[in-house]
Amino acid sequence: RCPLGPAGATAWPLGRSVPSERPGGTDMLIQLRYFASLREALGPGETIELPAGATVASVRDALIARGGTHAQMLARGRALRCALDRRMADENQALHDDAELAFFPPVTGG
Question: 8 pLDDT exceeds 90?
Fold first, then answer.
């Protein structure tokens, strides 16, 4: 278990069991997934607890606030795409309990 950032959220690596009792004030569990270069740098993902009202942008900001590799890979100047429950999402999209949020670089072909 590790702190997600200043918003008071908590995170567990993928594959670790998440406690069934959630601390007061935390209303949602979100499954984060990372793909391509993000996966290489950050791992496959993690499960995080978030307060109600969290958005894609607030999760990204909290992950950036961790510093280190998270800050580098998810930086605001870096082009990233997001998917919420396997559908493309913009950063204003509100999250819900048991959502799956994925971050990945844009894909180009040639």
Answer: no
Sheet of strand 81-84, all strands in order from the earlier edge strand to the far edge: 2-3, 10-13, 45-50, 28-34, 99-104, 81-84, 87-89
Cα 69 to Cα 95: distance, rounded to the nearest angstrom:
24
Contact call for residues 12 and 46 (beta carbons, < 8 A): yes
Q: In a 10 Å sphere around its CB, with 0-12 CB exposed, 13-18 middle and 19+ buried, how is residue 4 labelled?
A: buried
Place of tokens 């793909």: 35
Please give the structure tokens belonging to residue 86.
Answer: 């396997």
Residues 26/51, Cβ–Cβ less than 8 Å: yes
| Pair of tokens at residue 8 | 């008071």
pLDDT confidence tier of residue 13, bands split at 50, 70 and 90: low
pLDDT in tens, 59-80: 999 999 999 999 999 999 999 9
Tokens of 105: 């670089």
